[in-house]
Amino acid sequence: MSQTQTQTDTEAGVAMLRCEEIEMSFGGIPVLKGIDLHLEPGSVTALAGENGAGKSTLMKIASGQYTPDAGSVTVRGRALTPGSTRAANDLGVAIVPQELASIPELTVYENLYIGREERNALGLLDRRAMIAGAQEALADFGIELDPTVRMGPLPVGVRQIVEIIKASSRGARVLLLDEPTSAIAEREVAQLEMVVRSCRDRGVAILFTTHKMEEMRSMADRVIVLRDGRLIADSPIGRITDDEIVTAMIGRELENLFPTRPEHTPEPVLEVRDLAVEPETAPISVTVRRGEILGLAGLVGAGRTELIECLYGSRRPAGGRVSIAGRVLRPGSPRHSIARNVAIVPEDRKGAGAVLSMSVVDNATLPRIAAFSRFGVLSESRRRTTIESAMQSVRLKSAGLGQSMEHLSGGNQQKVVLGRWLTGTVDVLLLDEPTRGVDVGARSEIYRIIVDLASQGMAVVMASSDMPEILALSHRALVMRGLAVAGELSREQLDAPGVQETIFRLASGLEDSSDSGAPSTDLTSHQENLQ
Length: 531
Description:
- This protein has a six-stranded mixed β-sheet with strand order 6-7-8-3-9-10, sandwiched between helices. Strands 16-19-20-13-21-22 form a six-stranded mixed β-sheet, with helices on both faces. The protein has a four-stranded antiparallel β-sheet with strand order 2-1-4-5, with helices on one face.
- The two termini are 35 Å apart.
- The relative contact order is 0.11.
- It has three domains: 3-99 and 171-250, Rossmann fold (3-Layer(aba) Sandwich), CATH 3.40.50; 268-341 and 426-529, P-loop containing nucleotide triphosphate hydrolases (Rossmann fold, 3-Layer(aba) Sandwich); 357-424, no CATH class.
- The protein is α/β, with parallel strands linked by helices and 531 residues long.
- The protein is 33% helix and 22% strand.
């Protein structure tokens, strides 16, 4: 888009995007209730709200994916044909969803040019011209990336940036980013912010959703808050406090985000002895006691998820053993782990934690289906009664057990994934990023559930990239690096000044575990796994 066109839009007072009186329901449940929204040229607006507030639905309406029940959308004064993504694209509206639309098997330049390939005089693909054009487009945004590499192996954050550049190169005037930083490393966030500012400076109107206050402050000029489908707040970012944003999101003041940790007993439940995640990695030995919460900290790629998978049995370790209440687990066997009362909430909620097309009751049945069956036939009344009780214990908000998982908020999806294990006995609870993609109100509820379960005697192992979670909830923390333990911090050390810097230095290899007062650990050299 030209600078002249941007000035014309601004002088004429024409909003890049305007939504008026938008209403939308799913299954008779109102999701959006009379929403008005306008985006000005060269502005960045943060769209905040709890999971289920209607943020993604509003974006899908604005991008032509959904047809609203009522209301209208205009782009630079021109009406958007409801439910038409092509019409939205033609008007200059582009969306980068949480589930990226890039094609991993194709190269970067092929993704940038897909649907508008350049051809030579003979009608053949002009790959040289497209590679050169891709290099220019990437350099224009300050991105150093070989356009001939495949998209698949690239980090999620880099793929998101390529999608944004693709939209910009196609003339996007309105850019919608749905949770752009929910699954990317910290250094990729900085790159993403740079690209967003560059788009803003070119006159693009940007709307992005996030649960993170620091990202609103660093990127947005303005914040809009939705709650229960209604617009609650619309303010310049400099005129509203973090507490006011949170209060607008959840309808109440959030006094204590983290509950008090329970006392744990000396009784060992989970015992890990000389476990090697992969060949040649340093062995890991740790004991987790009944009622104890053990935090796993570390950088992306440090091995937290791999350790969790070894404990659960979905990954076979290279050596060592895992015992539950004195009974050795069969390596690489989730079924045996479940029989020994081990439960897991995986990092990838949508890919590995739940079947979104299925109902709440069917998802909750999956881990213990045999317990609800007799001679291969499900006992409908028994499973509904048991699952209803479990979902009440995690305070699930839904239209009933028959509601589809895909229509639940992220926080409530996570409650189902966690609560379904409570239909039976759990001795060890493995949590991998338990609040990823979950808003601040639902986070508070999930923290209380975790603490309640620990107080009932479960041994909890919690991997998290959220430092406040590790510091507030853990009785102890292991800092991981290169698929091994770089250091162990006691509760007293977690309370000490400067502990975040200590954790970072251990995680990045800048400090030996003995420097922190933690037990010395033989470290490996898998630095290539860090991101």
